[in-house]
Amino acid sequence: MPADHLVTVPAPEPSAPPDRVLVEDASDCPAVHETECTTCGEGPEPTVCQDVAVRHLWCAEHVVRAGHTGFLALRVGLLRAVAVYEVRR
């Protein structure tokens, strides 16, 4: 397209963001815990269980079984932005 056919559109004026804060949202889906071996990718099924000892036990058993010693542990949860006045109530 030739340059003389281009239209320049000004950027919109920035508006002040609403007063919001991020909070953990467990209403729809509680946090999921995942653990996997960094060598082979094997791991127990993801769970919403908060019991870290169970996941550590799986890792210890995997060290004995496979000889792998590196693990990745993730906690995946949802966040929700809520208005500040909702939090102060």
Describe the structure.
With 89 residues, the chain is of the alpha+beta class. The protein has 2 helices and 4 strands; from the N terminus they run E-E-H-E-E-H. The strands form 2 sheets. A two-stranded antiparallel ribbon has the order 1-4. A two-stranded antiparallel ribbon has the order 2-3. The N and C termini lie far apart (56 Å). 3% of the residues are buried.
Biggest β-sheet: strands ordered side by side in the sheet: 1-4
Through-space gap between termini = 56 Å
Radius of gyration, CA atoms, in whole angstroms = 23 Å
Strand percentage lies at 15-25%
Regions with little confidence, pLDDT below 50 for 5+ residues: none
Binned, the helix content reads 10-25%
**Biggest β-sheet strands, sense, barrel:** 2 strands, antiparallel
Structural class: alpha+beta
Order of helices and strands: EEHEEH
Please count the helical segments: 2
Overall, the morphology is elongated
Rounded mean pLDDT is: 79
Number of strands: 4
Per-chain topology:
Layout: E1 20-24, E2 32-37, H1 52-66, E3 71-76, E4 79-83, H2 84-88
Antiparallel strand pairs: 1-4, 2-3
Kindly summarize this structure in a few lines.
The protein has 89 residues and is an alpha+beta fold. It has helices spanning 52-66, 84-88; strands at 20-24, 32-37, 71-76, 79-83. The termini are far apart.
